[in-house]
Amino acid sequence: SYELTQPPSVSVAPGETARMTCEGEYIGHQSVHWYQQKPGQAPVMIIYYDADRPSGIPERFSGSNSENTATLTISRVEAGDEADYYCQVWDRLGDQNVFGTGTRVTVL
Amino acid sequence: EVQLVDSGGGLVHPGGSLRLSCAASGFNFFNYWMNWVRQAPGKGLEWVANIKDDGSERYFVDSVKGRFIISRDNAKNSLYLQMNRLSVEDTAVYYCVRTASVGSTTGAFDMWGQGTMVTVSS
């Protein structure tokens, strides 16, 4: 089955830039979506179709996707960005949705 | 108000069954693929199943194939998950989730229910 690998954790100081990857075979040929989940809450979509941002999501959040790696970037990190982040794709070959392993962002 | 409300969770013994429900409101439910996503305590997200807008197609994660059934009633704006032969590994919060793009299964998950807890334990 298709797998998406994310680093378990990323630490960043306030005001700095956080980057987290989502690695999967030929992921660059798929549409990648990203979610933010804070403790005790349901996930929230923050990036869809690789780089689009839903209304209400700050411009500080951006996404890219190429070859075998998709990347979520958070610029000018704030304390409120501390959360778990997941990537997700629809695996066409397996007819299944797949989530990445998740990255916990800690704001120092 | 546009929302999804999950219900039906609870405590069940291994080998037992449970039926989850999701009530949708505020949007044209019949236009969207719908999903169930679960999250075991302290773990990541796992997609469980989805169903096409008209109910004609269904897909499942391998671990629940043959045990779980996803269905919908567009007249009642409702989504269901019938879970059979439950095991302790099925213990999780289960979320009802909408796929964003009308008529598409590749879209993002833009709307989530609040989740309902399923605990499988003896």
Tell me the helix content of chain B. Answer: under 10%
Number of strands of chain A: 9
- Which range does the strand content of chain B fall in? over 45%
Please state the average pLDDT score of chain B: 96
Overall shape of chain A: it is: globular
Largest sheet of chain B: 7 strands, mixed
Largest interface: A-B, 25 and 23 residues
Low-confidence stretches of chain B: none
Distance between the termini of chain A: 36 Å
Helix-strand topology string of chain A = EEEEEEEEE
Query: What percentage of the residues of chain A does DSSP assign to strands (E)?
Result: over 45%
Secondary-structure element sequence of chain B?
EEEEEEEEEEE
Total helix count of chain B?
0
Q: Main sheet of chain A, how many strands, which sense, barrel?
A: 6 strands, mixed
From the spread of the alpha carbons, the general shape of chain B counts as globular
Walk me through what this model shows.
The complex is a heterodimer of chains A (108) and B (122). Chain A is an all-beta fold and 108 residues long. The model of chain A has no long low-confidence stretch (mean pLDDT 96). In chain A, strands 1, 3, 4, 7, 8 and 9 form a 6-stranded mixed β-sheet that branches. Chain A contains no helices and 9 strands. Helix content of chain A is 0%, strand content 45%. Chain B is globular, with a radius of gyration of 13 Å. In chain B, 0% of the residues lie in helices and 50% in strands. Chain B has 122 residues and is mainly β. Chain B starts with a strand and ends with a strand. Chain B has strands spanning 3-7, 10-12, 18-25, 34-39, 45-51, 58-60, 68-73, 78-83, 92-99, 109-112, 116-120.
